[in-house]
Amino acid sequence: MSSMKQIVQCVPNFSEGRDLKKIEKIVEPFRAKDGVKLLDYQNDEDHNRAVVTVVGAPEPLKEAIVAAMGVAIEVIDMRLHQGQHPRMGATDVVPFIPVKNVTPQEAVEISKDVAGKVAGEYNLPVFLYEKSAASPARQNLANIRKGQFEGMAEKISLPQWKPDYGPAEIHPSAGVTAIGARMPLVAYNVNLDTDNFEIADRIAKQVRHLSGGLRYCKGIGIELKDRGIVQVSMNMTDYTKTALYRVFELIKIEARRYGVNVVGSEVIGLVPMEALIDTAAYYLGLEGFSMEQVLEARIYE
Amino acid sequence: MSSMKQIVQCVPNFSEGRDLKKIEKIVEPFRAKDGVKLLDYQNDEDHNRAVVTVVGAPEPLKEAIVAAMGVAIEVIDMRLHQGQHPRMGATDVVPFIPVKNVTPQEAVEISKDVAGKVAGEYNLPVFLYEKSAASPARQNLANIRKGQFEGMAEKISLPQWKPDYGPAEIHPSAGVTAIGARMPLVAYNVNLDTDNFEIADRIAKQVRHLSGGLRYCKGIGIELKDRGIVQVSMNMTDYTKTALYRVFELIKIEARRYGVNVVGSEVIGLVPMEALIDTAAYYLGLEGFSMEQVLEARIYE
């Protein structure tokens, strides 16, 4: 219960989704570290990938992720890696997310510290992405990762793909890693009372940024075959700027065009408290409300 | 960041609202104690009363409140006390409120432990109230406090007002104290676009428990003269059973009868995260949502 404790979240993706013993070794540095808390880790065998969710104070979190990346380099050989998910390194991508008393800019600094450290210690090439990117072309992870591990040896020898840290040649077994700061991502889906996929697909295109919609919304239409309905499945990439209630109300408005109704919505995985409290404040028309009035925010500040 | 930490809130009311040095002495045990956090304390000169908000783990919180009550007995003399707010003791009332990983029943046990302790150490008569009350007649603090300090010497000599702990005679300078467990209270007001007090008064009567409304809602109509509007001013005494959105929507429905509209609402003071997240879940029609998905709930569990 100390004052103004800083908390950062980190969601590293490792290219190992089948050998549970190796995954345990990789997450061990997060378990062992004071000031760091391992919230979750999940492996996907088809993707051959593990996604770890960890929070902590900046300094111990930085030390723990550097150590975990060291273990990943020891136990993963990308030359033997096969899986459905695009990937380019043993530690594929390391996003840092501000949670409490941390500015986005501080999260960028944390990502750069870690990039410098792992480049030096492990001779690993690192690209900075998202908010940490040195240029617009490097903001999008998909751009960086295009060509994947197999194409990366050639790609990073090109002047325009010189890594931000480390050598301009891949680590022979561990490839390259992208590290950066981003805002919390909320996986948010809205369900429609129709089985017509076309309608979900069109509404997704209407509300997402890519095709004319809200700035921090990515989305696609999907079918929920077991329920006989369709869904607009979204990633909200900055809920502080594109609020959940805004996309929910917008989908209700678009649905009218097709004579269908919104029947509910769902949040997948973790969601920051503020994303939902802001939604409550909108619907109740709360006047003069501050997050400082939330009991839990006061208890843990 | 340990696992399953228990947190209880305590909001003791002390009968001193004018002498800031005395108030500082009273709150000192909350500052000094590991595992306890003093969130807020406010004095009211007209009421001649101080309200303290403190949270902590059960054991250190119990020790700190016993110590603070000891200081209150030293520095407050009820024979000299005057103020607008009804009161019966140097420490007038001590509610314990479950916040995290604490059941209402555990909060009752905590209140009884403290009642036994202060009765023994300070020879102070204590009434258990709210969820800790031994009989329905003692649930309501107003019932217990009727007669106030001046009438209490005679009242507690009556068999039906024998205290739950301590002697059946008042502490000469510190009077008597009520201690109990209750649910978090949310002060919630809804604003109407009229200056007609009568409408706020009638809607308050329609939505509050006392006169036919929702079980855990107390309310009155008030005028906001500077804004030229009226307000339904409420205390929601158990948001887990009477949700904020329910009373908000009900007031909108009642307002139609008078041709007026709800223009907004406000939360006064602290509100538990869950009260607002439950509201967001209602308006978004969230399916399968669990509080375990709230990042902050996971970080601090």
Can you walk me through this structure?
Two copies of one chain form a homodimer. Chain A is an alpha+beta fold and 301 residues long. Chain A is built from nine helices and eleven strands. In chain A, the strands form two sheets. In chain A, strands 1, 2, 3, 4, 5, 6 and 7 form a seven-stranded mixed sheet that branches. Chain A has a four-stranded antiparallel sheet with strand order 9-10-8-11. Chain A is globular. The termini of chain A are close together. The model of chain A has no long low-confidence stretch (mean pLDDT 95). At the A-B interface, helix 7, strand 11, helix 8 and helix 9 of A face helix 7, strand 11, helix 8 and helix 9 of B.
How many distinct helices of chain A? 9
* Low-pLDDT stretches of chain A: none
Shape field of chain A: globular
The SSE string of chain A, one letter per element, is EEHEEHEHEHHEEHEEHEHH
Extended strand count of chain A: 11
Largest sheet of chain A: 7 strands, mixed
Q: Note the gap between the termini of chain A.
A: 7 Å
Helical residues, percent of chain A = 25-40%
Give the rounded overall mean pLDDT of chain A.
Answer: 95
For this structure, the quaternary state is: homodimer
Q: What is the SS-derived class of chain A?
A: alpha+beta
Give short descriptive properties of this protein:
homodimer, 301 residues, alpha+beta, four-stranded antiparallel sheet, 9 helices, 11 strands, globular
List the helices and strands and how they pair.
2 copies of one chain form a homodimer.
Chain A lengths: L6 E4 L2 E2 L5 H12 L4 E9 L4 E8 L1 H18 L15 E10 L3 H19 L3 E5 L10 H5 L2 H8 L21 E5 L4 E7 L4 H11 L9 E8 L4 E8 L7 H13 L5 E7 L4 H11 L11 H5 L2
Parallel strand pairs in A: 5-7, 6-7
Antiparallel strand pairs in A: 1-4, 1-5, 2-4, 2-5, 3-4, 8-10, 8-11, 9-10
